[in-house]
Design brief:
single chain; 11 helices; rod-shaped; alpha/beta; Lysozyme-like; binds zinc ion
Length: 297
């Protein structure tokens, strides 16, 4: 469902600060790794993650002091712009010290009115809705993967947040994304529905992983079993093989008696080349029966 394209924003000052370990916040983030992730919506009518990725690598983003870990578009294409354990500038507050930032792209059939506080207008509701529903689904998938990779509990308080929630908690700048777009389109999506969907997906993925692990273990056991059987079970293909066996003195009188009496004709061949195809166990049974007098003198 997700196609991950690594396109690190090596010209972005936040990225460079990580490479240079500019201060203790970068060092700490790199040592500890992210404690969670913030879901953003880019706030511009651009559906292509590639274009947003290029922006974050440009002087414009450097001037805006903006950077993120990745950008997701509606078809599941995810541009990864920095390693997960880099400290990036996405939330505009202390959330940057602990959380990854993931941007979702927005449909091209909306526009923001800069003269009226960037009020959102929608030109084509069904097209916009299609974009947002698909992107939401892909974000659930991506966040579920991140939860598994980083061992996060998606339902634990403060692990998965929106930029809006970061603002409300005093750990992010005054933004309303991504809820502003969800609400404008009456999607019914909230960060609670998002976190619940991620938690459900994590469970599904973990169950799939467990099933695969069990399948591998069962295959391994069957394989080991087959190998050990092959190793331990002696088989005698012909009479000559039996004659050459270390225990032949115990087996041979019985086998020769059975051949002489016509009880044992083998599977073909004759003389020493008579094909017996006996296992050690089957010969032992024949010998025991012989000793019990089953075949007469
Ligand atoms: Zn944001």
């Amino acid at each position: 469902m997700l196609t991950i394209i690594e396109r690190y924003t090596k010209n972005n000052p936040a990225y460079l600060n990580n490479l240079n370990k500019a201060d203790s916040r970068y060092v700490e983030f790199q040592c500890i790794g992210p404690k969670g992730a913030v879901l953003h919506s880019i706030g511009t009518p651009q559906p292509l993650a590639r274009v947003i990725a290029e922006y974050f690598d440009s002087p414009e983003a450097a001037r805006a002091q903006a950077s993120v870990h990745g950008v997701l578009q509606a078809d599941g294409t995810y541009y990864k712009l920095a390693p997960d354990n880099f400290r990036m500038w996405h939330a505009g507050g202390t959330a940057n010290n602990t959380h990854m930032g993931i941007e979702m792209t927005e449909p091209d059939c909306i526009w923001y009115d800069a003269s009226k506080g960037y009020k959102l207008h929608i030109r084509n509701t069904s097209k916009a809705l299609d974009h947002v529903v698909k992107t939401y689904g892909c974000a659930v998938e991506l966040f579920a993967d991140l939860c598994i990779q980083h061992n996060w509990d998606p339902l634990e308080d403060g692990v998965i947040l929106s930029h809006k929630e970061c603002y409300e908690r005093g750990i992010g700048s005054n933004h309303g994304d991504p809820e502003h777009l969800w609400d404008a389109l009456n999607t019914g999506y909230t960060m609670d529905t998002f976190r619940a969907a991620v938690a459900k997906r994590v469970k599904e993925l973990e169950a799939e992983t467990l099933d695969k692990k069990i399948e591998v273990i069962v295959k391994q056991i069957l394989n080991d079993n087959r190998k050990s059987q092959e190793k331990t079970e002696l088989r005698y293909k012909t009479l000559a093989d039996l004659k050459a066996a270390p225990n032949s003195q115990h087996y041979l009188p019985t086998v020769e008696k059975l051949i002489a009496k016509g009880y044992l004709n083998g599977k073909g061949g004759s003389g020493d080349d008579l094909i017996l195809d006996f296992s050690e166990d089957s010969i032992r049974i024949l010998v025991t029966l012989d000793r019990a007098g089953v075949y007469g003198e």
